[in-house]
Amino acid sequence: MRAPNAVLSLRGVTRRFGGLVAVNDMSFDVTEHEVMGLIGPNGSGKSTTLNLISGALAPNAGTISLRGTPLSQLPAQDIARKGVARTFQLVRLLPSMTVLDNVKAGAVFGHRRRWGSEADDHAMAMLEKVGLGRHAFAVPSQLTYIDTKRVELARVLASDPKILLLDEWLAGLNPTELGQGIDLIRALREEGRTIILVEHVMDAIRSLCDACVVMASGTKIAEGTPEAVLSDPEVIRAYLGDDDA
Amino acid sequence: MDILITGLLLGGTYALIAVGLNLQYGMVRIMNLANGELIVIGGFAAFWFQTAASVSPLLTVFLVAPVAFALNWLIYTVMLRPLVKRAKSRGQLEVDAILTTFGLSFVAVGVMLAVFGGDYFSYSYLARPVELLGATFGLNRIMAFLGAVVICGALYLWLNHSRPGLSIRAIAVAPQSARLVGIDVQKLSALAFALGGAVTAVGGGLISMFLTLDASTGVMFTLKALIIVIMGGVGDMRGTIVAALALGVLESFVASVLDPGLTLAAAYLLFLLVLLFRPQGLFGRGQA
Amino acid sequence: MKRDAWQDLALGAVLLAVAACLPWFGGSYWLSIGVTIAMYTVLATSWALFSGPTHYISLATTAFFGIGTYTTGLGIDHLPYWVLLPIAGVLGAVLAGLVGLATLRLSGVYFVIFTLGLAELVRQIITWVQNFSGQKGLYVLTDITEADIYWQLLGLAGIVFLGGWAIGRSRLGFALRIIGDDETVARHSGINTARAKVILFMVPGAVAAIAGAILAPRYVYIEPLLAFTPMLSFQVVIMALLGGTGRLWGPLVGVIPFTFLWEAISASFPNQTTLLLGLCFLLIVYLLPKGFVGLIESVRRWAKSREGYA
Ligand SMILES: Nc1ncnc2c1ncn2[C@@H]1O[C@H](COP(=O)(O)OP(=O)(O)OP(=O)(O)O)[C@@H](O)[C@H]1O
Ligand SMILES: [Mg+2]
């Protein structure tokens, strides 16, 4: 059933909030070295899906597995340690700590655990990778918006995850920053990382994703290559549509 | 049987003070740790009017309520609202509110000690035995219970059927959305806080009809009210009332079967069980 | 970095050595003040180790302290004194662990309420057991002097500071700083937040119990109301917050002035101590949210920026 080289698999995952079914019977696979776009109109359940994978929420039904090991029912910290790392739609940094310490959080407690100078060096390397080396000793309140997003990305990378979940990492950037952001993610893709990308920016999806899953009102309505799904009439209807606008 | 009725009578008054606290915590999200001092102040007013001017505690309540309302409204607008505004996170507001209301509680105790001294105060009012279902109870306990029933009932109707009541409940459930539909959150928060304070103080007046109080007993009541609120579920009036009655029965059971000195220990054990198994309250739904 | 750390340690050791000379130079009044200050330093510093980073306000100090006092009281006739101190520490840590397991997964309000009643709970149970067995209190008769108590407390203070210094440099300390900033991020970074909090809460539990065990001989006669004074928990909270929990030495800066203020007020207006506590709470919230440490640091920053312009 599961694709042989799948890193992450969802089967029949469902989550309800009271009467609202935010995620309804979702199933998909993410294979190794793949960048998968998870797209859909506002409120369609994308963030909730990421929350279910990362353990921020528990599913009401269905299973989520990482290379065959079940994740559903595990607490978030165990899922993080098994190699699932995420950013948040609303950036979450540690306000009282330096940028370097923010990134170190991922290096020290994540999938691969480091300590001492090894952790410092690794965190610094990740900061360099996202282009923030010179701000290592700043505090988050001194950063520009895109730089806060970079810090969060560096924290995620620092944990050496098997899979990255990026929730609208490109949202809210101005055109120049957007260009830089797309380049950054492309670099990650070229490194062979496995990524789930929740995005509204269609250009980014076209140029970055190998495959896409489209959600509307909690349900998967299409799956395939970006070109294929973006020209699917049902997807177009969902985006422009009458019930979700 | 008598234990049950004594417990229910006691629980009725507990319900009143816990409902007051729950109005403040459930609706405004400020845990008022000075709650017990309001009870003592309410009780003290009843005592003073009864002994100095022979005014019935049941009448004093009509004076206590508006005064406590005004006092709590002031506390909210002058002291707590700035904290709400400056708080960067829910956690920070929580800590600030805890420290401030503790501060207020100590100041209140300090002032009461300075003005009235540390003596116990009690008075005798309607201390006649009354026969009820084959056992005898103090008339004062029964009157206090009836008072509590009337007030809880009125409050319940108000919250469920009046416009401000419904708005206050809307704030409790979803403050952001409440703002969107044009509810003046600030004004209604102050109203809920003040109302909660008034209800609590009235509860104090009623309790003083049959319990002996002194300036520093407040903290006991605070603890019990907090336990009831958490047990019943934050913001859940019905749960609060059930929890209060349960606590009243438990206390009178422990007091008569084991030892009156262990009532708090028993309440505590109950609290522990709630925390371990139903931290969302007796009737709360699953994990939040 | 390394250099600074050793300097801090050396400075701490020198200060401790100087403090240890008090019994030879000060009179009995100063020695008794010294005991009080040492006791509150131990309690407030260990309190801040947990409550500083996590923002959970613990009012359980009295409960742990009382348990320590009772350990000495009950055990002194049967076991050597030196064995009792570690036993008290273990008991305090175990109780703290249990309380932590029950409450630390929940919001801070639940924790405050639970710890607020804990001392009263333990007191009621002990009183009840004593009523059963017919005795009212316990005599602790030893030849331990006030100076011995003072030195033991200083030793404990040394251990607490050293422990706090080590925790600050450990993964546990780093984890707690993250938890204090954002618990969601902590969990998603792979930190077992509940376990970290419970482990750290055992530290003030053990320390307060040992402090209680050390002070028991000073009381001579122990009864529940004395061993479990509710005020103690509040005093510790105020001293720690007044000093500031952002630095290891912060609580000490609160303990010293508060002890003198408290002595002065309770000597001349014994009924006004409650009022004093209340006003201090309000002072902390409205004027000194980061304590004296925060004040000192903002003055320093201000001075630095002035220098920069000059
Ligand atoms: N914790 C929650 N409690 C109740 N309802 C929730 C909760 N989280 C999400 N929802 C609801 O679930 C639905 C899906 O929300 P979700 O945040 O997953 O959407 P999304 O696809 O990420 O949207 P966006 O593009 O705006 O970020 C929405 O209707 C939302 O209101
Ligand atoms: Mg989203």
Describe the model.
The complex is a heterotrimer of chains A (245), B (288) and C (310). Chain A starts with 5 loop residues before the first strand and ends in a 5-residue tail after the last helix. Chain A folds into two domains: 1-81 and 163-170 and 196-245, P-loop containing nucleotide triphosphate hydrolases (Rossmann fold), CATH 3.40.50; 84-161, no CATH class. Chain A is globular. In chain A, the strands form two sheets. A six-stranded mixed beta sheet of chain A has the order 6-7-8-3-9-10, sandwiched between helices. The mean pLDDT of chain A is 90. In chain A, 37% of the residues lie in helices and 25% in strands. Chain A contains nine helices and ten strands. Chain A has 245 residues and is of the alpha/beta class. Chain A has helices at 46-54, 76-82, 99-109, 117-129, 145-158, 175-190, 202-208, 226-231, 233-240, and strands at residues 6-17, 20-31, 35-39, 61-66, 69-70, 84-86, 163-167, 195-198, 211-216, 219-224. With 288 residues, chain B is an all-alpha fold. Chain B has a single domain (2-277), classed as ABC transporter involved in vitamin B12 uptake, BtuC, CATH 1.10.3470. In chain B, strands 1-2 form a two-stranded antiparallel sheet. In chain B, a hairpin with a 2-residue loop joins β1 and β2 (135-138). In chain B, α2 packs across α9 (218-232), α3 (57-86) packs antiparallel against α8 (185-207) and α9 (218-232) runs parallel beside α11 (263-277). Chain B starts with a helix and ends in an 11-residue tail after the last helix. The model of chain B has no long low-confidence stretch (mean pLDDT 83). Chain C is an all-alpha fold and 310 residues long. Chain C has a single domain (3-229), classed as Orthogonal Bundle (ABC transporter involved in vitamin B12 uptake, BtuC). In chain C, α5 runs antiparallel to α10 (193-219) and α7 runs antiparallel to α10. The radius of gyration of chain C is 20 Å and the shape is globular. Chain C starts with a helix and ends with a helix. The mean pLDDT of chain C is 88. Classes of the chains: A alpha/beta (245), B mainly alpha (288), C mainly alpha (310). The interface between A and C is medium-sized, with 29 and 18 residues. The complex binds adenosine-5'-triphosphate (ATP) and magnesium ion. Adenosine-5'-triphosphate is lined by residues 17, 20, 22, 40, 42-48, 89 of chain A. Magnesium ion is lined by residues 46-47, 89, 167 of chain A.
